[in-house]
Amino acid sequence: MDIEIRPEDQAFAGEVQRWLDEHLVGEFAAHRGVGGPDDSAAWDVRLRWEKELSAGRWLGLTWPPEYGGRGATLAQAIIFEYLYARAQAPYRVGVQGQDLFGPTLLMFGRHEQKARFLPKRPGSRAFRSGRSPTCSATASSARSSSPARGPAPTW
Fold first, then answer.
1. Rounded to the nearest 5 degrees, what angle is found at the Cα of 120, between the Cα atoms of 116 and 122?
2. Crossing angle (nearest 10°) for helices 74-86 and 10-23
3. How do residues 22-62 score in pLDDT, each as one tens digit?
4. Less CB within 10 Å around the terminal CB: N or C of the chain?
């Protein structure tokens, strides 16, 4: 499948493709297509790849620049993901944190929460939805409680 890239996004697409061509080499190229949302295969390689992406500012593309993103448009984010998938780059270890938790915190978090939990550059520290390569448990197994605030809601 090919997508049509608008003229105003051609330079961005070229930048993405050049970066992938220059950086998806060696051990990263040897692990093309490796990993998935519940797969710890080649974890250490994928973690190094994620740090490489972070150094290139390719994580959190749509995040505001003050939080380490590029402030990319939706079209640019789609172009990046398309070219990334076409290159069969390794699956990112922090994708859930960057694509789910991060944007939620950006939208609804208080300033103090953003300062505490959002890295200055996405991918610069572990940001992984409660998963580690040595533990198959996920954050869904965590339990929490809070003080009672009236009657429990009925669903």
1. 105
2. 30
3. 999 999 999 999 998 888 899 999 999 999 999 999 999 99
4. C
CB 114 within 8 A of CB 106: yes
Quick one: tokens of 6? 């608008």
How far apart, in Å, are the Cα atoms of 45 and each of 27, 28, 48, 105, 141? 7, 7, 5, 28, 27
Q: Which residue has the tokens 């991918």?
A: 123
C-alpha span between 66 and 99 (Å, rounded): 17
- In order of start, what are the domains of the chain with their CATH numbers? 18-130 (1.10.540.10)
Q: pLDDT for 117-154, tens place per residue?
A: 887 766 555 444 444 444 444 444 444 455 555 665 56
DSSP type of residue 41: T
